[in-house]
Every structure is written in structure tokens, then in C-alpha cells.
Design brief:
With 798 residues, this protein is α/β, with parallel strands linked by helices. It contains 28 helices and 27 strands. Bound molecules: adenosine-5'-triphosphate and magnesium ion.
């Protein structure tokens, strides 16, 4: 099974089939081909882990190749940064570090060969004329007046281009393929352009540079790549990839291109252009700002390579694009840090606490475990005395109902130490509380307590150290900044809070740069590798603390699921926010409306920008039981189980639909991905579409009687009008056209239009199947789905 793709994936299947058939002499060679024009981001990590993982799994090799064919945007500083990041991910390219610029001469030789063979020509039209002449999807292209230049003339011109005799834009080298080709990319694509620019590696040696579509297949072929894996937007380039290789070969092995879905992640942008803009405009502190989705940024935030691998496994590799819930990344990071970050105490916004009953001048050292509940893993000494500091937010003069922290007359446990009772406060000139006075209960030292008291963290007032703590939040306020007119407008101005006067216990003051910690009750923190000094660490918050199964996570994933479809979160998603705070801290809040100040105090362990609009109901253990059952018994994905399990209303609807279609997974998928969005926040119970009808709808789709595209139309209609899914499907004409004769006719038309490819396919060029299948799909004009078209074509070619 492929690493970074636990549970296998379609690429692993392809490789296994190739190995089984003995293709490429049993070799598996993949590559990761970044262009050195920016830092790598988490999307690249997905591609790196996939390519290196597949090579490792199948005993092959993975190359790191710099696709440095565009001198103007590239820089050797990026070359260095990219290598560091790939290595950091744990990927090893061995001897296989390659640069496209090292093989410019071989590429040029291939271009000359194409020219000699009459398959490429120098076009002297201006770029606009070339673009215009290419036509469009509906309109075939028009041949360039230079298309019929003789090979000798072309060779001479190409040589002049290369020799620097012609200025930028004077002409280009184009492949001579087919100006009426149904795939616009094959209408005599550009192979070389003139660019008098200094290259970061070849200097002024070249003044013509190859285009991606020409360079990439050749780089693959030169390096002996067997499986060239790229993202989906290159699907239609594959025909050109094949053309280049077919006309410059033979190649052994002959590389094949495969596409997978690129990663898009909520609350961030993954376009190098936009990331560069954030850096260039100083919206962030640099490529490695801990809010950036770059590997350098994630590393500095305290995310480990192991967490990224876990994340890659979690999201898998698919062939359809979707936005991944950032909750999945946070889940993977939390799971990883949970195991590696020892616990210690830090007070971010200190409030003095005086233990009146503690003798002045008496100090003790408490031995507190690094890992509560696991004393075997060691302890550290934490000084305790009469003057302490606690979190300002852990004290309330007028506590809301259910408050389990400090307040006049109340008792709490100082974590790992004594139970104290608040007997008074000191006030400043403006009446503000400047200190809390307490008495302690002798003999109560330790953990927990018979009365189920809440615990608060603390540090010694004089034997703690002041440090800087940086609280990072998501960089953007919205899940899809890319969908905004101007993504910069969606930046969250409060994504970074710097706290100068935080106080930490002695052990934390000695934290080594690059060490991970859990600050008790607050979250995971990372001693900044750049800014920390011995004895003066600077801490970056990696993530606020949160039980991944808490209602908070659920509230977030519920609102995310709705937001994914571009619709504002419904009331049900919001109401659990305050509830989550209670779960996070293990203290129930009562179902009365607390003051908003109190609620924000209650939320202080997981600072959030989400507005709290509603009183918190007490936590419901039954939702936890439900989501565990959904995950473990019904085998729903973690995010679906969270979404459906935590919300009364959703889970009721889901369970009411199950009897009419007892397949939880597709039911949950349609509910989470589509129905919630279509409901636009209207409670499901008040939709015209009832749960049983929804079940029937999913049954119809899964039986293949409507295509996936029509299914969405049908569901939208059901949400609006209700009624019987099958009847509505018939009424709207959405039933799959089961017209085998039409499909067979489409197959015949496609085969006669591509007679040569069909012949070559029959002679053993199996990769042409895709070309033929594409032709069938085009001929069928969308009436056939890929699976039946594939079946019909296979049948016919047999
Ligand atoms: P651009 O081409 O706009 O500069 P890019 O992100 O595609 O940006 P490349 O350096 O070409 O940058 O990417 C290197 C490899 O990483 C390519 O194979 C690409 O398919 C892959 N890749 C890029 N972005 C993602 C993503 N979001 N998810 C998965 N793979 C990605
Ligand atoms: Mg790219």
C-alpha cells in the first residue's frame, strides 16, 4: 500500500497493474517537478508524499526535478528552500536531483528533429494573431501563413532564434499538428519562445526557452520516469504530452501521465501567485510566517512532518477536486502533538493570586508529571508559594451560572497543587480587580478532588519567567478566500495576537528552540526556532486545545459543511459554540443565558472569533455516543460522523432516512455534501422533502438510474417541491438515457474518426484507449456516462 495513501488509491492500482503486466521492465520511477518560483505549500506536500511514497512502496525511485524553464520568475533561493522542505518531509531523492536547464541542449535537439520531420515550424506572426488563429471550442483554427515553410527554412530560423539574432516576440517555434483538432491545445502549440533573460543557472547561454508542454514530457523521458503524476488541470494536456513523446521517441521506458485532484484547503490560499503577493506586500512576515500554508510556515508553527503524513493519509488521493475541511488538518496535528508535547503551565494574561493562609517566605517544590496520569514518564519541579499568578479570564467577580473557576467565595483546585477558596479581591484606582486573595486547604495537594472541583493553571509570581507568546489563528476569515473578488479583503486582521507579558513555569523558561509543549488547558505551543534564545523562548501557538470529538469541532465542521456550498451557517451550527467551551474545559455551563463577558471568559481556553449569539445548553453525552457509533459501526468518515452525530436535528433526519435506504455512507455523503447546502439553513424537518423520500432519492442515484450531474438537479427540485423522487425524476426528464443504440452509434462515429488510433490500439498501444474513450464521450455529447461508454468501447474493440 502506498505511503501517503493508506488504503490504496487509483495510482497504486495502476502501478500494480503495470507491474503485474511486466511493463517498464518492472521499474517504477516517479518525480516531483516544482518550478523554483516560490516556496512549497501543503498542496505540494500531498504531491511529494504521493510520488515518493509510491516509489518507496514499489521499490522504485523518486526524482526531485526543478522545472526551471521560465527564467524571469525563478530564483536559486527557491531551489534551496524547496530542497530543504522536501528533505524535511522525510523524502530522499538520492542521486536524482535534476534540473530542466541541464538538458536544454537535448530538448533543442528534439525540436530540430521535429522541424526536420516537418512536424514543427517557425511562426513569425505576432502572438495575438497566433492566439486568434487558434480558434475556439466551437470554431476550428486557421492555419498560419507560415505553416508551410520548408524544413530547411525553419531550421535556419530556429538556429537564428537560438543564436540571439531575433528580438523577443519576433517568432516562435510551433508544433505542426492539426489546426482543427477537437482539443484546442493540439492546434499547433508553441514549443519555444524567445526570451532574452538571464537564467539563474544557465546565465546567458540561452535566449530561447521551451514551453511547459514541450519540456515536461521530454524531462520525464530523459530521466526514465515511468509514472508522471500531475494535477487534474493537466488532463487535456495529456494528449499533447503523448504527441511530443510519440514524435521524439522511441523512449524506454515510455512515461505516462496520470492526474489526481489537487489539494484545496479551507481558510487559506494555495496559489503560489497569491502566496507571493502576501509576502511581497508584507501582509505576513515572510514565506515562513506561521500562518502561511507553506511547509516553512507550518514547520515554524510547530506542525511536524509526521502530522502532514497523517493528514495526507486522512484525505487520500482522488480524481475529483474538492475543498478539504481544515478541521482534518487540525485533527491530524492535534493527534500528533498529543503524543509528543509534554504538559506544563503558562499564564498568558496574569492576575496575581495571594494565598493568605500560606506562611510568608515558605516555598515548596511540587513534583508534577510531564504526562498527567503517566508518572513513569518523569516529573518536573514547579515552585509553589504565597504569591502566584493565574489567568485573568479564570476569575469572575460576578460568575455566570455553572462557573467552575475563581469567583468570590468559590473553591477551585490550583492544578497539581492545593484547593483554594477566594476570600476577597484587591482593587485598583478605577475599581478594577488587581489581585485575588485566597486561603488554601492544607492536605489537599494533588489532583482532582472529592467535590469535582474545576482546576485552573497557575505559576509562581516571582519564580516564573516573562516570555512572548504569539497566538496564531487562521489567516482568512472565510473558508474560500479564492472565491472572493479580492482575496486580500478576506484576511483576518486578528489572525495574530502577540502577548508580551505571559509568564511560564521554570521548566518552560528553559524550553529549547524547536520544542513542542502543551500549555495546560490552553493548547499546543512551539518554541520558535528562529526567535528563541537560551532562557528566553518565544512560543508560537500551533493550535488551541480542543477535544477532536468535542462539540466545538462539530460546530465548526457543521458550519464548514454548509459554507462549502456557499451558504451561510444555519442556527444549529452556531448554538453549540459555547457548549463546546464547556466540553473543552470539562466544565458544564448551565442552560441560562450568561453575560457575554462571561461567555467570552468561558471561551478563553480556545480563543475564537466566532460570535456567540445564544446561551449554551449543557453538553449532551448522547451526541458523543452517537458520533462514536456513526464512526465505528456505520463506518462514516470522521468528519461526517462529527457532523451528523453532534447535531440532534441532522442525526434525526439521517436515522429517519436509513430505513428507506439502509446504506449509511452514501446517505451521509449526500446529506452532508448536498442536502445541507441546498437547505440554506432551513431546518431539515421543515423542508418539503421528508427523510424517507430523501432515502429513496439516494437509492435512485446509487442504482445508477440518474447521472451524478442530474442527481443534483433532482435533489434541488425535491428540496423545493417535495414529492416522490422517482415521479419527479420522470417528470423532469432526468432519468439516465438508457439508449444502447445511441451509445453504439457514438462508438462507431468515434472509431471511424480515429481509425488510425483504433488500429494502433489493436496493435498493442493500449494507452490510446483514453483517446478513443474521450472521442466516444464527445460523440455521445454527454448522454453517456464514462462507465457505460468504457464498457461499450471495450466491447467493440475486443
Ligand atoms: P504554478 O504552476 O502556478 O507556479 P504550482 O503550484 O502548480 O504553481 P509547481 O511548482 O508547478 O507549482 O508544482 C509542482 C508540483 O506540485 C506539480 O506536479 C503540481 O501538480 C503539484 N501541485 C501543485 N499544487 C498542488 C496542490 N494544491 N495539490 C497537489 N499537488 C499540487
Ligand atoms: Mg504548476
Amino acid at each position: 500500500m502506498a505511503e501517503g495513501a493508506r488504503g490504496g488509491n487509483f495510482l497504486a492500482d495502476i502501478i500494480e497493474a503495470d507491474l503485474a503486466a511486466g511493463r517498464n521492465g518492472g521499474r517504477v520511477v516517479t518525480r516531483f517537478p516544482p518550478e523554483p518560483n516560490g516556496f512549497l505549500h501543503i498542496g505540494h506536500a500531498k504531491s511529494i508524499l504521493l510520488n515518493f511514497g509510491l516509489a518507496r512502496t514499489y521499490g522504485g525511485e523518486a526524482h526531485l526535478r526543478f522545472d526551471d524553464t521560465n527564467p524571469t520568475a525563478e530564483d536559486s533561493a527557491y531551489v534551496e528552500a524547496i530542497q530543504r522542505d522536501v528533505r524535511w518531509l522525510g523524502c530522499d531523492w538520492g542521486d536524482h536531483l535534476h534540473f530542466a536547464s541541464d538538458v536544454f541542449d537535448r530538448m533543442y535537439a528534439c525540436a530540430e528533429r521535429l522541424v526536420r520531420d516537418g512536424k514543427a515550424y517557425v511562426d513569425s506572426q505576432p502572438v495575438e494573431a497566433i492566439r486568434e488563429g487558434r480558434g475556439s471550442f466551437e470554431r476550428p483554427g486557421t492555419p498560419s501563413p507560415f505553416r508551410e515553410r520548408l524544413p530547411e527554412e525553419n531550421l535556419a530560423l530556429l538556429e537564428r532564434m537560438r543564436a540571439g539574432e531575433l528580438p523577443d516576440g519576433a517568432c516562435v517555434l510551433r508544433a505542426r499538428i492539426d489546426m482543427a483538432h477537437p482539443n484546442v491545445l493540439l492546434r499547433d502549440p508553441l514549443l519555444y519562445r524567445i526570451r532574452h533573460a538571464r537564467h539563474h543557472r544557465t546565465g546567458d547561454l540561452w535566449c530561447i526557452y521551451p514551453m511547459y508542454d514541450f519540456a515536461h514530457p521530454l524531462e520525464d523521458a530523459f530521466e526514465g520516469i515511468t509514472h508522471s503524476i500531475c494535477t487534474l488541470e493537466f488532463e487535456s494536456n495529456r494528449e499533447l504530452y503523448d504527441w511530443v513523446l510519440d514524435n521524439t521517441g522511441p523512449w524506454d521506458p515510455r512515461p505516462r501521465q496520470y492526474e489526481f485532484a489537487r489539494l484545496a484547503l479551507g481558510y487559506t490560499v494555495l496559489s503560489k501567485r497569491k502566496l507571493l503577493q502576501l509576502v511581497a506586500e508584507k501582509r505576513v512576515s515572510g514565506w515562513d510566517d506561521p500562518r502561511m500554508p507553506t511547509l516553512a510556515g507550518l514547520r515554524r508553527r510547530g506542525v511536524t512532518p509526521e502530522a502532514l503524513r497523517e493528514f495526507a493519509d486522512l484525505i487520500g488521493v482522488a480524481k475529483n477536486n474538492s475543498v478539504v475541511d481544515i478541521g482534518k488538518l487540525e485533527f491530524a496535528v492535534r493527534g500528533d502533538l498529543e503524543k509528543r508535547a509534554p504538559r506544563a503551565m503558562a499564564v498568558l494574561r496574569p492576575l496575581p493570586l495571594i494565598v493568605e493562609s500560606w506562611p510568608e517566605g515558605r516555598e515548596v517544590e511540587l513534583a508534577l508529571p510531564w504526562w498527567p496520569g503517566e508518572p513513569g514518564r518523569g516529573t518536573r519541579a514547579v515552585p509553589f508559594g504565597r504569591e502566584l499568578l493565574v489567568e485573568r479570564d479564570d476569575f469572575a467577580l460576578e460568575p455566570p451560572p455553572g462557573w467552575k473557576r475563581l469567583a468570590p467565595g468559590r473553591e477551585v483546585r490550583l492544578a497539581g497543587a492545593y484547593v483554594v477558596r477566594c476570600v476577597g479581591v484587591e482593587r485598583g484606582a478605577a475599581g478594577e480587580v488587581t489581585a485575588v486573595r485566597c486561603t488554601h486547604e492544607a492536605g489537599s495537594a494533588g489532583e482532582g478532588g472529592p467535590r469535582g472541583l474545576g482546576a485552573v493553571h497557575w505559576v509562581h509570581a516571582h519564580r516564573s519567567t516573562a516570555v512572548t507568546v504569539r497566538l496564531y489563528d487562521r489567516l482568512f476569515r472565510v473558508e474560500r478566500p479564492d472565491a472572493e473578488e479580492d482575496f486580500l479583503q478576506a484576511l483576518d486582521p486578528e489572525s495574530l495576537t502577540v502577548i508580551g507579558g505571559a509568564r511560564v513555569e521554570p521548566a518552560l523558561a528553559e524550553a529549547a528552540a524547536g520544542s513542542h509543549w502543551q500549555f495546560l488547558r490552553q493548547g499546543y505551543f512551539f518554541a520558535d526556532p528562529e526567535d528563541s534564545r537560551p532562557g528566553a523562548p518565544v512560543f508560537n501557538r500551533t493550535l488551541a486545545l480542543k477535544d477532536p470529538w468535542s462539540a466545538k469541532a462539530v460546530a465548526r465542521s457543521a458550519s464548514t459543511a454548509v459554507l462549502t456550498t456557499g451558504i451561510a451557517p444555519g442556527g444549529h451550527a452556531r448554538s453549540s459554540t459555547a457548549e463546546s467551551a464547556a466540553w473543552t474545559t470539562g466544565r458544564p455551563l448551565e442552560p441560562h443565558a450568561p453575560s457575554s463577558a462571561a461567555v467570552s471568559a468561558a471561551l478563553s481556553t480556545a480563543p475564537t472569533t466566532e460570535p456567540v449569539t445564544k446561551a449554551a445548553p449543557s453538553p449532551r453525552p448522547e451526541s458523543l455516543a452517537r458520533l462514536t457509533r456513526y464512526r465505528d459501526e456505520l463506518e462514516l468518515s470522521a468528519s461526517e460522523a462529527e457532523l451528523l452525530g453532534a447535531d440532534e436535528e441532522l442525526s434525526r433526519f439521517f436515522e429517519a432516512a436509513l430505513p428507506s435506504y439502509p446504506h449509511p455512507k452514501p446517505l451521509a455523503r449526500w446529506l452532508a455534501n448536498d442536502l445541507l447546502g441546498l437547505a440554506k439553513g432551513v431546518p431539515l424537518a421543515s423542508l418539503p422533502l421528508g427523510a424517507p423520500a430523501f432515502g429513496k432519492f439516494v437509492a435512485l442515484v446509487e442504482s445508477g438510474r440518474v447521472t451524478a450531474a442530474s442527481a443534483k438537479v433532482l435533489l434541488a427540485a425535491l428540496v423545493q417541491r417535495g414529492g416522490d423522487p422517482e415521479a419527479l425524476m420522470a417528470e423532469l426528464g432526468l432519468a439516465r438515457q438508457e439508449d444502447p443504440a445511441a451509445l453504439l452509434a457514438a462508438v462507431e462515429r468515434a472509431l471511424s474518426a480515429h481509425a488510425r488510433e483504433a488500429e494502433r490500439y489493436r496493435a498493442g498501444e493500449v494507452k490510446l484507449f483514453g483517446v478513443l474513450l474521450g472521442a466516444v464521450m464527445r460523440e455521445a455529447q454527454g448522454a453517456a456516462d464514462a462507465a457505460s461508454a468504457r464498457r461499450a468501447l471495450e466491447e467493440r474493440l475486443r
